Amino acid sequence: MDRIIKKKKWGTKRILTIAGIVAVCGLIAASLYFTSGKSRLNVDTERISISEIKKGSFQEFIPVNGIVLPVTTIYLDAMEGGRVEEKYVDDGTEMKKGQPILRLSNTDLQLGLVTQQTNVYNLLTQMQISRNAAQQNTVNKLNQMTDVESQLKEAERVYRLNKHLYEQKAIGLQEFKQAENNYNYYTQKKSLTMTILKQDSSSNLQQLTQARQSYEGSQNALNVMRKKVGDLIVRAPVDGQLTSLDAEIGQNKNKGERLGQLDVTSGFKVRADIDEHYISRIFPGLMGDFTLSDKTYKLKIKKVYTQVTNGRFQVDMEFTEAVPQGIRRGQTLQIRLALGDETQAILLAKGGFFQQTGGNWIFKVSENGNVAYKIDVQLGRQNPDYYEVLQGLKPGDKVITSSYENYGNMQELILKAGNPQ
Description:
The chain is an alpha+beta fold. Helices cover 35% and strands 34% of the residues.
């Protein structure tokens, strides 16, 4: 007897099994699709930044911080060491040239001054004694010369008389020779006395010159010692404002130690720190500008300090036009320092993409805006806002400039509105 067989229906378990198999196949197909050829990734357009390439004015500049300083600063160092005995003014005081700031004491210097004064007085006394002795010696020599001249005159008179008498046969030869010898003797004695007198005069002059030079040297040393003692009172070398005064009563200061500084308030300059990467491109004459109270002011590099400290070097900049009203010493300015002239260039807005690409490639958006694909580019100069495009892009192109951190090695990005899959 035939039995009716009921047609089997799809059970829940069977349906779920088939659905699982289909899903796995779908995943395998999707994996094969995405791994074959170019790798792709869905990206939410709301989470990325898209910028348009444009052509415009480009100037390479770097942002630097500058500190306002007086145009001239004179440092006050201790010319001589000593103990701070008295302060005449306080930090921040407007000073006049020669006005005392503080007084130091140094017993060694003061004792040295007294000793040098005593030496000068003793030397002066000795000079006077030597001069008097020389004068007396000269007087004695002159007296001797006078005696010799008198004796010579008498001997000459007797000689001439005896010669006449001898020729007249009035006296004998012996008496005539005696008068002649006596005359010759005094003639030679006069010559010798004159020679001694000249040598004595020359010697006295030489001794006097040496004594005078010794006295002048000792007097100069005394003046130097007086100046060293006078330097214990520190005075303002020029008109200006006293700043950074570092001295307290009772404090000991060494010779050459910094006491403070005097700022000449006739004008201001700006000292800026720059990364050593740019040291070969920085030179006097480069221009910069900053904005203060909605007004732009221009600066020009006047001096470059090539010493590098902690990876940075410094430059001094001067105002080329008006100085901002109310500017103060120590004020910080945000300066745009131009590294070249303004030119026309293809511009790419700065963004986080550079951290992963190094400027060698970028994701360019297709014309329909649905896909962004990887292309090679070449970038040149830069400023805080733009890169200069040398190759790979043209005005009107659109590129993704936000960070590529999550894109890995993707070749294409599928741009979709809403959350990415």
